[in-house]
Design goal:
This is AraC family transcriptional regulator. It holds the Pfam family HTH_18. Keywords: Transcription, Transcription regulation. By secondary structure, the chain is an alpha+beta fold. It has three domains: 188 residues, Jelly Rolls; 46 residues, Arc Repressor Mutant, subunit A (Orthogonal Bundle), CATH 1.10.10; 56 residues, Orthogonal Bundle (Arc Repressor Mutant, subunit A), CATH 1.10.10.60. The chain contains 13 helices and ten strands. Strand 1 and strand 2 form a beta hairpin. The longest helix has 20 residues. It is globular and about 55 Å long. The two termini are 30 Å apart.
Protein backbone atom coordinates (compact mmCIF):
# COMPACT_ATOMS: atom_id res chain seq x y z
CA UNK A 1 0.00 0.00 0.00
CA UNK A 2 1.46 3.38 -0.98
CA UNK A 3 1.57 6.32 1.41
CA UNK A 4 -1.51 8.07 0.00
CA UNK A 5 -3.65 4.92 0.08
CA UNK A 6 -2.54 4.23 3.64
CA UNK A 7 -3.50 7.78 4.65
CA UNK A 8 -6.98 7.30 3.17
CA UNK A 9 -7.34 3.91 4.88
CA UNK A 10 -6.39 5.41 8.24
CA UNK A 11 -9.09 8.08 8.00
CA UNK A 12 -11.74 5.64 6.75
CA UNK A 13 -10.92 3.34 9.66
CA UNK A 14 -12.13 5.98 12.12
CA UNK A 15 -15.06 7.47 10.15
CA UNK A 16 -18.05 5.14 9.92
CA UNK A 17 -20.78 7.26 8.35
CA UNK A 18 -20.76 10.54 6.46
CA UNK A 19 -19.99 13.65 8.46
CA UNK A 20 -17.35 15.30 10.62
CA UNK A 21 -15.78 13.38 13.51
CA UNK A 22 -14.00 15.05 16.42
CA UNK A 23 -11.26 12.65 17.52
CA UNK A 24 -9.51 11.88 20.81
CA UNK A 25 -6.53 13.81 19.43
CA UNK A 26 -6.73 17.45 20.59
CA UNK A 27 -7.74 19.86 17.78
CA UNK A 28 -8.00 17.04 15.20
CA UNK A 29 -11.15 16.24 13.21
CA UNK A 30 -11.77 13.84 10.32
CA UNK A 31 -14.40 14.11 7.58
CA UNK A 32 -16.03 11.61 5.23
CA UNK A 33 -18.60 12.11 2.46
CA UNK A 34 -19.75 9.45 0.02
CA UNK A 35 -21.07 11.89 -2.58
CA UNK A 36 -20.50 15.53 -3.60
CA UNK A 37 -22.02 18.02 -1.18
CA UNK A 38 -24.14 21.12 -1.43
CA UNK A 39 -22.20 24.41 -1.14
CA UNK A 40 -22.01 24.91 2.64
CA UNK A 41 -21.48 28.28 4.32
CA UNK A 42 -19.43 28.32 7.50
CA UNK A 43 -16.65 30.08 9.39
CA UNK A 44 -13.30 28.43 8.68
CA UNK A 45 -11.10 28.46 11.78
CA UNK A 46 -7.31 28.78 11.64
CA UNK A 47 -6.42 25.25 10.58
CA UNK A 48 -4.42 22.88 8.41
CA UNK A 49 -6.61 20.79 6.09
CA UNK A 50 -5.31 17.81 4.10
CA UNK A 51 -7.44 15.70 1.78
CA UNK A 52 -6.68 11.97 1.62
CA UNK A 53 -9.20 11.19 -1.12
CA UNK A 54 -11.58 13.23 -3.29
CA UNK A 55 -11.63 16.95 -4.13
CA UNK A 56 -13.01 20.10 -2.56
CA UNK A 57 -13.40 23.77 -3.34
CA UNK A 58 -13.47 26.61 -0.84
CA UNK A 59 -14.73 30.04 -1.88
CA UNK A 60 -13.54 33.20 -0.12
CA UNK A 61 -14.82 36.40 -1.66
CA UNK A 62 -14.08 36.22 -5.38
CA UNK A 63 -11.34 33.57 -5.00
CA UNK A 64 -11.85 29.82 -5.40
CA UNK A 65 -9.40 27.41 -3.76
CA UNK A 66 -9.71 24.04 -5.51
CA UNK A 67 -7.60 21.25 -4.04
CA UNK A 68 -7.15 17.49 -3.73
CA UNK A 69 -4.69 15.09 -2.09
CA UNK A 70 -1.70 16.78 -3.69
CA UNK A 71 -2.16 20.07 -1.79
CA UNK A 72 -3.01 21.23 1.70
CA UNK A 73 -4.98 24.29 2.74
CA UNK A 74 -4.02 26.63 5.58
CA UNK A 75 -6.40 29.18 7.08
CA UNK A 76 -4.84 31.89 9.27
CA UNK A 77 -7.94 33.56 10.80
CA UNK A 78 -11.63 32.83 11.38
CA UNK A 79 -13.18 33.66 8.03
CA UNK A 80 -16.62 33.03 6.45
CA UNK A 81 -16.27 30.74 3.43
CA UNK A 82 -18.33 28.48 1.20
CA UNK A 83 -17.04 24.90 1.15
CA UNK A 84 -18.11 22.18 -1.25
CA UNK A 85 -16.92 18.62 -1.78
CA UNK A 86 -16.89 18.21 -5.56
CA UNK A 87 -15.54 14.66 -5.96
CA UNK A 88 -16.73 11.71 -3.85
CA UNK A 89 -18.39 8.34 -4.43
CA UNK A 90 -19.50 5.49 -2.14
CA UNK A 91 -16.57 3.44 -3.49
CA UNK A 92 -14.04 6.31 -3.09
CA UNK A 93 -15.48 8.70 -0.52
CA UNK A 94 -14.08 12.12 0.23
CA UNK A 95 -11.76 11.79 3.24
CA UNK A 96 -9.95 14.63 4.99
CA UNK A 97 -7.89 15.56 8.05
CA UNK A 98 -8.13 18.89 9.88
CA UNK A 99 -5.84 20.22 12.61
CA UNK A 100 -6.90 23.49 14.26
CA UNK A 101 -3.83 25.68 14.69
CA UNK A 102 -2.81 26.69 18.21
CA UNK A 103 -0.96 30.06 18.19
CA UNK A 104 0.72 29.30 21.52
CA UNK A 105 2.27 26.08 20.21
CA UNK A 106 3.43 27.88 17.08
CA UNK A 107 5.01 30.62 19.25
CA UNK A 108 6.85 28.05 21.38
CA UNK A 109 8.18 26.30 18.31
CA UNK A 110 9.34 29.57 16.75
CA UNK A 111 11.31 30.39 19.91
CA UNK A 112 12.84 26.92 20.14
CA UNK A 113 13.89 26.78 16.48
CA UNK A 114 15.36 30.28 16.31
CA UNK A 115 12.82 31.54 13.75
CA UNK A 116 12.48 34.74 15.79
CA UNK A 117 15.35 36.15 13.70
CA UNK A 118 13.21 35.84 10.58
CA UNK A 119 10.34 37.62 12.32
CA UNK A 120 12.64 40.50 13.21
CA UNK A 121 13.81 40.76 9.59
CA UNK A 122 10.17 40.90 8.45
CA UNK A 123 9.50 43.85 10.75
CA UNK A 124 6.62 44.50 13.10
CA UNK A 125 3.88 43.67 10.64
CA UNK A 126 5.26 41.69 7.75
CA UNK A 127 3.28 41.45 4.54
CA UNK A 128 -0.39 40.57 4.89
CA UNK A 129 -2.12 38.23 2.49
CA UNK A 130 -5.50 36.53 2.16
CA UNK A 131 -6.26 34.20 5.05
CA UNK A 132 -6.40 31.05 2.88
CA UNK A 133 -3.55 29.49 0.92
CA UNK A 134 -2.67 26.22 -0.80
CA UNK A 135 0.69 24.43 -0.85
CA UNK A 136 2.06 21.06 -1.94
CA UNK A 137 1.84 18.18 0.54
CA UNK A 138 5.35 16.86 1.17
CA UNK A 139 6.16 13.25 2.16
CA UNK A 140 7.57 14.53 5.47
CA UNK A 141 4.37 16.40 6.35
CA UNK A 142 2.17 13.46 5.38
CA UNK A 143 4.30 11.04 7.42
CA UNK A 144 3.90 13.24 10.52
CA UNK A 145 0.12 13.40 10.04
CA UNK A 146 -0.11 9.63 9.63
CA UNK A 147 1.94 9.02 12.77
CA UNK A 148 -0.50 11.25 14.64
CA UNK A 149 -3.52 9.34 13.31
CA UNK A 150 -2.05 5.96 14.23
CA UNK A 151 -2.16 7.09 17.88
CA UNK A 152 -5.93 6.64 17.75
CA UNK A 153 -5.23 2.91 17.97
CA UNK A 154 -3.31 3.48 21.22
CA UNK A 155 -5.28 5.94 23.35
CA UNK A 156 -2.82 5.66 26.26
CA UNK A 157 -0.05 7.07 24.02
CA UNK A 158 -1.98 10.18 22.92
CA UNK A 159 -1.14 12.36 25.94
CA UNK A 160 2.62 11.83 25.50
CA UNK A 161 3.12 11.23 21.77
CA UNK A 162 0.26 13.37 20.40
CA UNK A 163 1.99 16.68 21.23
CA UNK A 164 5.21 15.42 19.61
CA UNK A 165 3.39 14.58 16.38
CA UNK A 166 1.61 17.96 16.41
CA UNK A 167 4.90 19.79 16.94
CA UNK A 168 6.43 17.97 13.97
CA UNK A 169 3.47 18.92 11.79
CA UNK A 170 3.81 22.58 12.80
CA UNK A 171 7.57 22.40 12.29
CA UNK A 172 7.05 21.15 8.72
CA UNK A 173 4.62 24.01 8.07
CA UNK A 174 7.02 26.57 9.55
CA UNK A 175 9.66 25.39 7.11
CA UNK A 176 7.31 25.41 4.12
CA UNK A 177 5.84 28.06 1.82
CA UNK A 178 3.32 29.15 4.49
CA UNK A 179 6.00 29.96 7.07
CA UNK A 180 5.43 33.74 7.01
CA UNK A 181 1.66 33.31 7.41
CA UNK A 182 2.13 31.01 10.42
CA UNK A 183 4.65 33.37 12.01
CA UNK A 184 2.07 36.16 11.77
CA UNK A 185 -0.47 33.95 13.56
CA UNK A 186 1.90 33.65 16.50
CA UNK A 187 3.56 37.09 16.42
CA UNK A 188 2.34 39.39 19.19
CA UNK A 189 0.87 42.66 17.86
CA UNK A 190 1.42 41.84 14.20
CA UNK A 191 -1.00 43.30 11.67
CA UNK A 192 -2.65 39.90 11.45
CA UNK A 193 -3.04 39.77 15.24
CA UNK A 194 -4.71 43.19 15.18
CA UNK A 195 -7.11 42.04 12.47
CA UNK A 196 -7.72 38.91 14.56
CA UNK A 197 -8.66 41.13 17.53
CA UNK A 198 -11.17 42.93 15.32
CA UNK A 199 -12.60 39.61 14.14
CA UNK A 200 -12.91 38.36 17.72
CA UNK A 201 -14.78 41.54 18.69
CA UNK A 202 -17.20 41.21 15.76
CA UNK A 203 -17.84 37.55 16.60
CA UNK A 204 -18.64 38.48 20.20
CA UNK A 205 -20.88 41.43 19.27
CA UNK A 206 -22.19 40.49 15.82
CA UNK A 207 -25.84 41.13 16.75
CA UNK A 208 -25.04 44.75 17.68
CA UNK A 209 -24.50 47.74 15.37
CA UNK A 210 -20.97 49.17 15.44
CA UNK A 211 -18.86 51.85 13.82
CA UNK A 212 -15.54 51.27 12.08
CA UNK A 213 -14.00 53.75 14.53
CA UNK A 214 -15.06 51.63 17.52
CA UNK A 215 -13.71 48.49 15.89
CA UNK A 216 -10.45 50.24 15.00
CA UNK A 217 -10.04 51.26 18.62
CA UNK A 218 -10.47 47.62 19.71
CA UNK A 219 -7.86 46.54 17.14
CA UNK A 220 -5.50 49.40 18.03
CA UNK A 221 -5.30 50.59 14.40
CA UNK A 222 -6.52 53.63 12.52
CA UNK A 223 -9.90 53.23 10.85
CA UNK A 224 -8.40 53.39 7.36
CA UNK A 225 -5.63 50.89 8.19
CA UNK A 226 -8.09 48.46 9.77
CA UNK A 227 -10.43 48.60 6.78
CA UNK A 228 -7.53 48.02 4.38
CA UNK A 229 -5.88 45.17 6.31
CA UNK A 230 -9.19 43.54 7.24
CA UNK A 231 -10.12 43.31 3.57
CA UNK A 232 -6.64 42.03 2.66
CA UNK A 233 -7.04 39.11 5.06
CA UNK A 234 -10.75 38.26 4.84
CA UNK A 235 -11.64 39.49 1.31
CA UNK A 236 -14.53 41.47 2.83
CA UNK A 237 -15.17 44.61 4.87
CA UNK A 238 -15.92 44.43 8.62
CA UNK A 239 -19.62 45.13 7.96
CA UNK A 240 -19.77 42.40 5.31
CA UNK A 241 -18.10 40.04 7.79
CA UNK A 242 -20.73 40.90 10.41
CA UNK A 243 -23.52 40.28 7.89
CA UNK A 244 -22.12 36.84 7.06
CA UNK A 245 -22.02 35.90 10.76
CA UNK A 246 -25.57 37.16 11.31
CA UNK A 247 -26.99 35.21 8.39
CA UNK A 248 -25.08 32.02 9.22
CA UNK A 249 -26.30 32.14 12.83
CA UNK A 250 -29.86 32.77 11.66
CA UNK A 251 -29.59 29.75 9.36
CA UNK A 252 -28.38 27.64 12.30
CA UNK A 253 -31.30 28.82 14.46
CA UNK A 254 -33.79 27.90 11.73
CA UNK A 255 -32.21 24.52 10.94
CA UNK A 256 -31.15 23.27 14.35
CA UNK A 257 -33.48 25.02 16.79
CA UNK A 258 -36.54 25.23 14.56
CA UNK A 259 -36.92 29.01 14.83
CA UNK A 260 -39.18 30.78 12.37
CA UNK A 261 -37.54 33.25 9.99
CA UNK A 262 -38.83 36.39 11.71
CA UNK A 263 -37.59 35.27 15.15
CA UNK A 264 -34.20 34.16 13.81
CA UNK A 265 -33.70 37.45 11.98
CA UNK A 266 -34.58 39.45 15.09
CA UNK A 267 -32.26 37.37 17.29
CA UNK A 268 -29.24 38.08 15.09
CA UNK A 269 -29.87 41.83 14.92
CA UNK A 270 -32.20 42.49 11.99
CA UNK A 271 -34.99 45.00 12.68
CA UNK A 272 -36.63 44.57 9.28
CA UNK A 273 -37.97 41.07 8.40
CA UNK A 274 -38.07 41.97 4.71
CA UNK A 275 -34.42 43.07 4.74
CA UNK A 276 -33.47 39.86 6.55
CA UNK A 277 -35.32 37.67 4.03
CA UNK A 278 -33.80 39.59 1.12
CA UNK A 279 -30.22 39.32 2.38
CA UNK A 280 -30.70 35.68 3.41
CA UNK A 281 -31.91 34.81 -0.10
CA UNK A 282 -29.02 36.67 -1.67
CA UNK A 283 -26.44 34.73 0.38
CA UNK A 284 -27.98 31.26 0.44
CA UNK A 285 -29.88 31.28 -2.85
CA UNK A 286 -33.37 30.76 -1.40
CA UNK A 287 -35.69 32.24 1.26
CA UNK A 288 -35.22 30.84 4.79
CA UNK A 289 -38.01 28.21 4.82
CA UNK A 290 -37.24 26.84 1.35
CA UNK A 291 -33.49 26.80 2.12
CA UNK A 292 -34.04 24.92 5.40
CA UNK A 293 -36.29 22.31 3.78
CA UNK A 294 -33.76 21.74 0.99
CA UNK A 295 -30.87 21.24 3.42
CA UNK A 296 -32.83 18.91 5.68
CA UNK A 297 -33.63 16.74 2.66
CA UNK A 298 -29.97 16.51 1.57
CA UNK A 299 -27.85 14.01 3.56
CA UNK A 300 -24.36 15.37 4.22
CA UNK A 301 -25.34 18.93 3.34
CA UNK A 302 -24.58 20.12 6.86
CA UNK A 303 -20.97 18.98 6.98
CA UNK A 304 -19.04 22.10 8.08
CA UNK A 305 -17.13 24.12 5.51
Amino acid sequence: MDRQAEFAALIEQYTSGDGMLETALPRVALAKLSKPSEPMHGVHQPALCIIAQGRKQVILGDSIYFYDASQYLVASVDVPVVGQVVEATPEKPYLSFKLNLDPHLISELILETGLTDEIEREGAGGTLSTSLSLATVTPELLDAVMRMLRLLDKPRDIAVLGPLAEREILYRLLNGPDAARLRQIAQVDSKLQRVTRAIAWIKQHFTEPFSIELLASEARMSASALHHHFKQVTAMSPLQYQKQLRLQEARRLILIQGSDAASAGHQVGYESPSQFSREYSRLFGAPPLRDANRLKATPGALVPA
